[in-house]
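Worked Example 4.2. Consider the chain below.
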Amino acid sequence: MTPPLLERVLVIMPAWNEGLAVGNTVREVLARPEGYDILVVNDGSTDNTAQVAANAGATVLQLPFNLGVGGAMRAGFKYAHRLNYDAVIQVDADGQHDPKDIAVVLDGLENADISIGARFAEKGTYTVSGPRKWAMVFLARTISRLAGTRLTDVTSGFRAANRRGIAQYLDHYPAEYLGDTIDSLVVAIRSGCKVTQVPVEMRVRQAGTPSHNPAKAALYLGRSIFAFLFAMTRKPSTVVHAESEVG
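Applying the procedure from the previous section yields the following structure tokens:
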């Protein structure tokens, strides 16, 4: 695969009621020497997320009501495609994704269409336990076999895509719960996208309260396995195959 020229990179930051954290996260990304553009997709927030993000220097796309991460990312991909960006990368508004690792994740696109910033691969101390861990291990092993490469963190939202990846996402990017991670990754692999991962170190939330608890972890287990099985029934996208034939 020919290494891409990533002259224009768009950081897509879906945000729902992240007024306490999004401003600092935007400023940290803009302070990077690489000169990334930032699009904050305000996902129907009821707080001052949009105003804080705009004041910090981001371009803000307003959604009229809460669609979830999948819906917000779909809007971001359409924006990136229309403005002809070379690559996109999703960064959480809560500050858990360290902006210094954006370049590391983008480097993965030298040999792949989708690059995942993996939390359980050599760096950092990020851990999970209980049903959430069981689901992550099961999904990582299963999707690794599908992708033909070892993936340890298939639910990470810290992921980048090149032009082929963006085109595939535009053709098929689900808005259902967990669809933005499991479903989108499975369909991308089955459609011919090459996937890789690079180790990154997670940070704690810069503000706000984590939503995980034992009940939600158990629910996560069931929903994530359902999302995988549902993804296997979807038709692969034809966009990537068509682009390969043209190339």
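The mean pLDDT is 85. DSSP finds nine helices and seven strands in the chain. Compare this with Example 4.1 before moving on.
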